[in-house]
Prior knowledge:
alpha/beta; 16 strands
Amino acid sequence: MSKKATILSLDSRHRYQVMTQPWLDRRIQSLFPVALVSVLIVGTTRLFLDNLKSYDSKIFEFYGEPERYKQRRPVFVSPKDRFEESCNVFEGKWIWDNVTYPLYSEESCPYLVKQTTCQRNGRPDSFYQNWRWQPDGCKLPRFDPLKLLDILRGKRLMFIGDSVQRGQFESMVCMVQSVIPEGKKSFHRIPPMKIFKAEEYNASIEYYWAPFIVESISDHATNHTVLKRLVDLDSIAKHGKSWQGVDVLVFESYVWWMYKPTINATYGSADDIKEYNVTTAYRLAFETWANWLESSINPLTQKVYFMSMSPTHLWSWEWKPGSNENCFNESYPIQGSYWGTGSSLTIMKIVQDILQELKIDVTFLNITQLSEYRKDAHTSVYGERKGKLLTKKQRSDPKNFADCIHWCLPGVPDTWNEILYAHLLQNHRNLL
């Protein structure tokens, strides 16, 4: 091609570009808003979907969390959350800790009953709240209420027993309730039960009044007889209906058996009332309980725990020779080895024998020895008697009116729950 032709060609191309440029500008300008809107829609949709994936989404606050998220949120338990298998968490000592203890306060927990709120009832010291249980050779994992609620997601945890067990139930509720927003938790009294619910977790912490575990004339939650005791040693079906299918069962029964060396009971015929030695009656009752467990518990989906006896501190001469008092005015734990006469080794042996013979696993939480040291932590004269706070006159007579059976809260039952929590972590299997 000649130079002239090349110049003409380039000139034509230039004229073409000049002619078409305005048209392209107009086309691009008309397309720009469409593209911008598309980008905004895509971005907003992505943001919406990302937010929907988040468990903190405001959408869930209004409409609730989708079932697939409720069911599939994993709980990860790390090695530091578990204690060594070789460590006996029930052997150790009480360490003074006024930095991280107590785990809650009376004021922060509206679910405590007057029987346990010793500070509110006038107790002058609070030292009993600041002791931490330290096992020998290992550490208990720090209690994490959110992790516990995750483990209990979609499940029921039930405490079963007498008023000591009720104190452990209230302790557990107080340990978790502060992390649950108002409006997302509820508390119901449906005798013989109390039920605390964490709504967003679809989890419940429950209490069931059954002082003898088996049935008795003392099974009404509030209107029960203390002095007259009649136990149906082979009857448990009525109670069992309420325990059926519960994911985590925590049993306890001791103090109500120990009122006298003998107890009226029936076995076989409801009309055949006999006076039984307490240890004989206890064994028969817990054989009935063991049979119910074996016939009713699914070991693949349910966990069963049994709390050992909660000790009493009724006679100060046991830890302070020559004295004639009780737990009143005690402010410090017992130092050195100690086992009070209020804790029956015979009953302990019966429980251990029955658990060893069971065909399903029941975890025995032996809190007796560690609690034996805590003569300082009972409600003493700062609790109730027959549903009423002690009068000034009654408080002035601690020898006759001090309660050395029940525990102040916050206090020793919090440690029992820390140990229960540690075992729940121990048994949890991470989903990969």
